[in-house]
User: What shape does this take?
Amino acid sequence: MRFNKAKCNLLHVGQGNPWYQYRLGDEGILSRLASKDLGLLVDEKLDMSDQYAHAAQKANCILGCIKRSVASRAREVILPLCSALVRPHLEFCIQLWSPQHKKDMELLEQVQRRATKMIQGLEHLSYEDRLRELGLLSLEKRRLRGNLIAAFQYLKGANRENGENIFSCTCCNRTRSNVFKLREGRFKQYRHIRKEFFTMRVVKQWNRFPREVEEASCLETLKATLDGALSNMV
Assistant: This one.
């Protein structure tokens, strides 16, 4: 296989990394502090801050193009355009880079806040009222919904065989919430990074939801249950 050396770069990850210089043939590989892999920006500390900024900037640019090129501000026009062109940039592979800090969440949420304010007749409403009027969820709730749907697929759905190797489960009948509990793994190294992984953060999210979520018989039932629970969540 032939490699394009100009498109190859090196990312040193981990504490105490000796930062060796690697080569492809006779040419050295350029070392970078952050690199893009499958559309996601990752730095040497496995921090996704660059990805948050990149996603918000790209979504805001597209939203600006919609604002300049579309004369109508009706919800029937703006809402489908934002759903099809803007929101995918904020949710692409979100299970991997889901923000955990308030400033990063707000950076992404600001894009949808700006989009809903463009709709005629809703300019003077608060963000929460605009979402309620449009029947939308905040991006934070959408990420939670996506996490639980993905977990359901690993626990009871199409990816159940893989889920047995990813999640550790236990049954508990002493609580009012679901009886099908997930257990958190324990790690000695890189706890501050591991706690943000999908397989770690979804454990608390799954365990605190009502039994109706765990008892859903199929994916469509789960989605309907989640939509009802999230819409009532403050």
Q: What stands out?
A: The chain has three domains: 5-32, 49-136, 143-231. The longest helix spans residues 49-69. The first strand starts at residue 9 and ends at 11. The chain has a mean pLDDT of 83.
